[in-house]
Amino acid sequence: MIESRGEKIFKVINNFLLALMATAALYPFLYVLSASVSKPYNVITGKVLLFPKGFTFDAYKEVLGNPDIWLAYGNTIFYTLAGTAVSMIFTICGAYALSKKRLRGRKFFTILVTLTLWFDAGMIPFYLTLRDLGLINTRTGIIIAFACNAFKVILLRTSFEGLPDELEESVKVDGGNDLHVLLRVYLPLVKPGLATVGLFYAIERWNGYFWSMILLTDTNKIPLQVLLKKMIVENDLQSEFTAALDFSSTISAETVTFATIIVSILPIVLVYPYIQKFFIKGMLVGAVKG
Amino acid sequence: MRNSAAPIKSSAPLNKRMRPKGDMRTYFQELKRDIIRDRILYYLLIPFLVWFLVFKYLPMWGIQIAFKDFSLFRGIGGSEWVGFEHIREFIGSEYFLRVFKNTVIISLYGLLICFPAQIILAIMISEVTRERFKKVVQTLTYLPHFISAVVIAGIVTTFLAPDNGLINLILEKLGMEKIYFLTDPNYFRGIYTTMNLWKETGFASIVFIAAIAGIDTQLYEAAKMDGANKFKQIIHVTLPGILPTIVVMFIMKIGSLLSVGYETIILLYQPATYETADVISTYVYRSGLIDGRYDFATAVGLFNSIVALILVVSANKLSKKVTDAGLW
């Protein structure tokens, strides 16, 4: 079809504005990246705007030489992997059982689960419950107390419900039971749903800081986000790098913070383009259900 | 039961039970048979339900301390009842108005600025014809959504730092005065809203992009025939096409007017900015987990939850009505 002049102009302006917005979305990360490999003097005098000035990797050397960061990184990986695994087991079991229309009590159990989306006991009663259960300052507490989420159960249940009943019957005819149906037939077929739910859990684990900050009092148990919060918000680093900054310094509290930020978001930024589609799917299901 | 009135068919599915009314013995026999038949499903379900009871319903038992003089020593059940004392104290305090006002204002900022931005971005993205470019724009604008609150708050803090933050360095170069952004209560809501605009607009636009994709392309062709230019097409085809989605999302936002999260705010606010930054959830966090006034904080949280629940339920009812009626 032939485009009119008006349409062409519209397109050019539209594309230009979108490019601008995309750049704006990316810019803060580019700045942090450039600043993390620049000399502190150039950073604090505003010479670094987009590209690094006075290239140096000293901030990264400092970060990677810091045992606290390694420990926190290890903790984050552990909480993310173990937490997601536990979450998936609970969510799959619950969602599968609740997807079976013949199950007695299904309606009641479903309401029991979905009610938690509408009413939450609140921060303090939840905290006191965890304390009474002895889950404060334990890795188990962090893993188990946040294992399940009604929204994700519903999301996965919907995937299961989309499978035809004939699949189940064919397994049953061959003498299989409900567990066989789940493991052999259902799970392989709902892989996209599983990926969506699993990635949601994983990213929440990786990014979450609040409850880890509240519940974990031992510094050797804290995940990366809590350590980052100490560095950035509470400015823990300032005292370490108070020595007067001059032109020749290759490291400062700011550049170390920037380097830590980059190290902490690197895994997400690297895998993000490949997993994006699963989040989009989850977002759409959520909006329809919501 | 619906099935009891249905004519008996020999080919009826296995799980459609026929049972004369009032025969309790058969009912329990059938129940037992079904539970035994589905025992594996129950084995899977039980740990899952126990989890919900322990981590979602057990805390609800603790809500009673909102009406008690809670002592750690005596525990939740053993503490003494004080009735509505905590709720009365909260409503009577100067904080009541402040945190409510801040919560609503911050929500309204989001509703008036971020919400329209999501729709505009979605329309703009949908107008792109080159798939590659579209993909890149989407990927980049969604990205900030996946970055943690701590990192985002860290970036905001360093950008706005008074001495050598990027924004102040630029202001200085332009010959302007430095601004102490994060210690000045006048700026907090603006900063918070701008941050959310940057972080969430892309990802939140997904819903609208999907809605636009569902519009019949023939409508655009027809509009073109009638001589409508791009802007007219957007106003007369795109917007009416996604209006149901807009209305539903808008009502949902109204429903969550009182649910401003604490996670980002507690990273950005400080005593100097409490005046404009302190919302209900951050106040609950501070009075409960920082000051240790568990009973009072629970009362504040409960008060908030109940008002918020009423809002959400009404919003949901309203949105059901709107989508069912389809009048839009």
From TrEMBL, chain A:
UniProtKB keywords: Cell membrane, Membrane, Transmembrane, Transmembrane helix, Transport
InterPro entries noted in UniProt: MetI-like, MetI-like_sf
Membrane topology (UniProt): Multi-pass membrane protein
Transmembrane regions: 12-33, 77-96, 108-128, 140-160, 181-203, 256-275
Pfam families referenced in this protein's UniProt entry, alphabetically: BPD_transp_1
Domain of life: Bacteria
Family stated for the protein in its record: Belongs to the binding-protein-dependent transport system permease family.
PANTHER family found in the cross-reference section: ABC TRANSPORTER PERMEASE PROTEIN MG189-RELATED-RELATED (PTHR43744), POLYGALACTURONAN_RHAMNOGALACTURONAN TRANSPORT SYSTEM PERMEASE PROTEIN YTCP (PTHR43744:SF9)
Protein name listed in UniProt: Carbohydrate ABC transporter permease
